[in-house]
Design a protein that fits this description.
Rossmann fold, globular, mainly alpha, about 425 residues, two-stranded parallel sheet, 4 strands, DNA Cyclobutane Dipyrimidine Photolyase, subunit A, domain 3, Serine Threonine Protein Phosphatase 5, Tetratricopeptide repeat
C-alpha cells in the first residue's frame, strides 16, 4: 500500500483479499516508509503518519496484518516476501517516476507474481488511454464512455477468516525513520487527517457546499472548493466513492458535471500526462509550440527577478502573490484559481523557464499537502508550459503561454478581502 492509504473503497486491497481467500491465505498490508521521499517535509509525514495510525486499527478489526518497513520497496520487499513465504504481491498504481522505477526493479527481483491495481482513478489509466492525451477535450469522451462500466458502488472489505501469524517479529513497526521521528507531531492543525476525517469532509462537502460550487469555485473569498485534495492525494479518500456520491446527489446536473469535470476528467488527465510523459517535471515535457515560444522570449527583460528564498518568504513587490505564498505555507493548500496565478508569476519573475519550473515544483512540493502529485506537476506544466492548453496572444516573457496577472484577479474577486483573510489566519 503506497498511494491509496485507506481500508474502505480500495480496489487493490479488495483484489488482494480475493486472492487470499481463493488460496486460503492470511492477508498482510505493507507500507514502505521512506524517510527522505523527494520533496516531502515533516508536515507531510505527520499528516500521513496520523492517517496510518488509524489505518492500522481498521485493518486489525478485519483481521488483516499491517507492517511498516523502513526502506524503499525495491530494497526491502524481495527479501521480506521470501522470509514470510508470500504467495503474491499486490501494489497500487502510481504514474510518478520514482514509483514506476520501484515497480520495475521489483519485477526484476521478485520470486512471486506482482499484480498492479489502479484504485486511484475511476477508469484505470492504462485502460482509458494508451498514449499521452493532447488536452481535456481528447480524454473527456474516452472517460465518459468508460464511466458506465467503472463508476459503480464499491464492495466492502470482509473480516478475513485466515490469520496472519508468520510475520517475523524483527520487522519494524514504528512510523518513519530518523528524519521523521525527530519531527514534531504537528501537521496542519486546521485539517484533520485519516480515513474517517476524509469521509466526513466528503459528506459535508456534498451535502452542504457542493450546491454553490459553480458560483464560488473561482472566488477564493468564498468557501467554494471542496478542500478534499489532501485526502485524495494521500489516498485517504476514494475518488470513485466521491464521484459516486456526487453523481447520485439530487443537485442540478450542471453543478454535478462541473465538479466531476475537475474530479474525474482533469485529475485523470494529470495521471495520463505523468504516466505517458517521462519529462513531466521538465521543460522537455512541454509541447513543441510552447518550448518554441518560450525560447524566442528567453532573453526578454524581466522587470523583477527573485531568488527561491525571496519567493519562499513571500517578499516580492506584489502583495497578492505574497499573500498566496503565505496562505500556502500556513494552510498547506492554495485555491485553484490562485495556484495558476501563483505559478505564472514565477515564470515572469525568474531568469528562464527552467528556473521557473524548478522553483514552482520545489515550493509546491514543499508546502502543499497535495504536492508531489500528478495534479501538481500537470498544473504547473499547464501554467508555465502550455500543457493541455493552446497558444494565446504573444507578449513579453510569456510568449504565447496564457497570461495571468493581479489585475485579472481583481476582476474575479475581492483581492483585499482575500489578503485580509490570509493575514487573519496567521
Amino acid at each position: 500500500m503506497s498511494r491509496d492509504q485507506r481500508v474502505n473503497d480500495n480496489w487493490a486491497l479488495l483484489w488482494a483479499q480475493q486472492e487470499a481467500l481463493i488460496h486460503r491465505k492470511g492477508l498482510l498490508v505493507v507500507f514502505c516508509m521512506i524517510p527522505d521521499y523527494p520533496g516531502a517535509t515533516s508536515r507531510h509525514y505527520n499528516f500521513m503518519r496520523k492517517g496510518l495510525e488509524e489505518l492500522r486499527g481498521k485493518l486489525n478489526q478485519y483481521n488483516i496484518g499491517f507492517r511498516i518497513l523502513k526502506q524503499s520497496p525495491e530494497a526491502i520487499l524481495p527479501q521480506f516476501l521470501d522470509t514470510i513465504d508470500a504467495h503474491l504481491l499486490v501494489n497500487d498504481f502510481d504514474p510518478l517516476r520514482i514509483k514506476q522505477q520501484w515497480k520495475k526493479m521489483l519485477i526484476a527481483s521478485l520470486n512471486v507474481p506482482l499484480h498492479e491495481v489502479d484504485t486511484h482513478n475511476i477508469v484505470p489509466a492504462w485502460i482509458i488511454s494508451d498514449k499521452k492525451e493532447y488536452a481535456a477535450y481528447t480524454l473527456r469522451p474516452k472517460i465518459k464512455r468508460g464511466l458506465d462500466e467503472y463508476l459503480t458502488d464499491i464492495p466492502a472489505v470482509q473480516p478475513h477468516p485466515f490469520n496472519w501469524n508468520n510475520a517475523p517479529m524483527e520487522v519494524p513497526e514504528t512510523f518513519g525513520g530518523e528524519n521523521v521521528a525527530s519531527q514534531t507531531t504537528e501537521a496542519y492543525p486546521r485539517i484533520q487527517t485519516g480515513e474517517t476525517a476524509a469521509h466526513l469532509a466528503a459528506v459535508h462537502f456534498v451535502q452542504q457546499r457542493l450546491e454553490n460550487y459553480v458560483k464560488a469555485r473561482n472566488n477564493p473569498c468564498f468557501d467554494g472548493q471542496s478542500g478534499l485534495s489532501p485526502y485524495l492525494h494521500f489516498g485517504q479518500l476514494s475518488p470513485q466513492r466521491l464521484a459516486w456520491r456526487v453523481s447520485r446527489s439530487a443537485l442540478p446536473a450542471e453543478t454535478k458535471e462541473a465538479f466531476l469535470e475537475e474530479l474525474v476528467v482533469r485529475r485523470e488527465l494529470a495521471d495520463n500526462f505523468c504516466y505517458y510523459e517521462p519529462a513531466y517535471d521538465r521543460v522537455a515535457g512541454f509541447p513543441d509550440w510552447a518550448r518554441k515560444t518560450l525560447d524566442q522570449h528567453r532573453n526578454d527583460t524581466r522587470d523583477y527577478v527573485y531568488s527561491l528564498a525571496e519567493l519562499e518568504n513571500g517578499t516580492t513587490h506584489e502583495i497578492l502573490w505574497n499573500a498566496c505564498q503565505q496562505d500556502l505555507v500556513q494552510s498547506g493548500k492554495l485555491h485553484g484559481f490562485l495556484r495558476m496565478y501563483w505559478a505564472k508569476k514565477i515564470l515572469e519573475w525568474t531568469p528562464d523557464p527552467e528556473t521557473a519550473l524548478e522553483y514552482a515544483i520545489t515550493l509546491n512540493d514543499r508546502y502543499s499537502l497535495d504536492g508531489r502529485d500528478p495534479n501538481g506537476y500537470a498544473g504547473i506544466a499547464w501554467s508555465l508550459g502550455g500543457v493541455h492548453d493552446r497558444a494565446w496572444r504573444e507578449r513579453s516573457v510569456f510568449g504565447k503561454i496564457r497570461y495571468m496577472n493581479e489585475a485579472g484577479c481583481r476582476r474575479k474577486f475581492d483581492v483585499e478581502r482575500y489578503i485580509e483573510t490570509v493575514c487573519n489566519k496567521g
